[in-house]
Amino acid sequence: MRRLAILLVITSATCLSALQAQSAPARGPDGSMRTITPGIEVLPYLNRPFSGTDTIVKTLSIEGGGTITTSETSKIARDSQGRLYRERHHFAAVDVDPEKTLYEFYVLDPIAHTHTVCTIATHQCTRTSYHPRFSYPVQPTGAFDAGRRFLTRDDLGQQSIDNLPAIGTREITTIAPATVGNDKELSLSREFWYSPDLKTNLSVIRKDPREGTQAIHLNVLSRDEPDPSIFAVPAGYTVQDDLQVTTSSN
Description:
Number of domains: 1
Distance between the termini: 76 Å
Largest sheet: 13 strands, mixed
Strand order of the largest sheet: 7-8-9-10-11-12-1-2-3-4-5-6-13
Shape: globular
Structural class: mainly beta
Order of helices and strands: HEEEEEEEEEEEEE
CATH superfamily: Lipoprotein localisation LolA/LolB/LppX
CATH class: Mainly Beta
Low-confidence stretches: none
């Protein structure tokens, strides 16, 4: 009887192992596709305070027809000292509450030369050294990248966005075949609407056949000084100083 019981246990274990082997997929792990989409870049200029939101809407074409549209809306503020507060959100369907997609926020302080990033889930912050930049290189029009790319730039005139004068520019970059693995010529476009008052773009539209269309809008809700408390680490958060690490991005 005991031998029969042992035999049944062995048989059951063998069958279970076989079932597990059948149900387990015959593949290794995969990290999936991840793409970071930058919003409007805001530089730490002095005496140009504002508060608002930065909204990114991504539209991708589906093979066979149709589109997928996702978005994220982040709070953003800059004070007269040039300090910048900004949120980071996960992309989601356009009707999802932004509070449900918030996962991180950060503060750039050009006076203290610190970059503080705080994670919502852990209530932990990391503070690194920060050296701001106030300019960026502008690619001249014409051929570049050893002739494999060609840039044109057009003046779109002026318009008012959120009661702010804005100057429009469109850039089109043509990429020759075999430059980025493409078997035919690619055309990429970017449209900018720039506010001289705030020294930042108010609207950017990027079109790239590899990534779809990205429409980004900086919605300025106030030109007043933002609440100073948003630039401080909230109560209940711990801060780890790592000031030997330097950040230069905005």
